[in-house]
Amino acid sequence: MIAVEGRDEKNFIEAFFKHLNISNTQVLDVAGKDNFSLILPAISKTPGFNSVVKFGIIRDADDSVENAFKSILGALNKASLTQPDSLSTFTDSTPSVGVYIMPDNTQKGMLEDLCLSSVIDEDNEKCLNEFFNCVDTNSIRNISKAKVQAYLSTQPEVVSSVGLAAKKGYWNFTNPCFDDLKSFLLNFK
Q1: Helix, strand, or coil here: 152?
Q2: Reduced to 3 states, what is the DSSP secondary structure of residue 6?
Q3: Burial class of residue 135, CB neighbours in 10 A (0-12, 13-18, 19+)
């Protein structure tokens, strides 16, 4: 079982699991990063949770990997679940608990940053940056999400989210930028 921030992340992780030929894993959307502390205690008390072998949590770093990890540790504590000592490691408890912070456990950012790095080479990044230099970015709340939307608008079938793009195969899951996340997800095989 994996708990993720939202529907986009749910679709993305399900697509990545399919790519890795991993089945029998439930991906739960907690409807926002601030809901982990509300939802994890409820999940841990759900009938049948005691049969869960691995429990993962994936969320965006946003401005700080450290703060995101501390937030998840607090939610795990509130749910009376064992806390891992570090990112991408799993506890020896039952269930074995692990945490992954997007985009790569080391940098601020989010799923969108990770996805873009799988498909944008130096030339494409230059074009994207030139485009965003030409438009009024003052009204853009999140430049990473805007860049993803610009990229997705060039695909054969336009989709509006990274999760749906993953299901369409628009992200290159074999790109080395996904190696750390892949290693984390392979714990569920």
Answers
A1: helix
A2: coil
A3: exposed
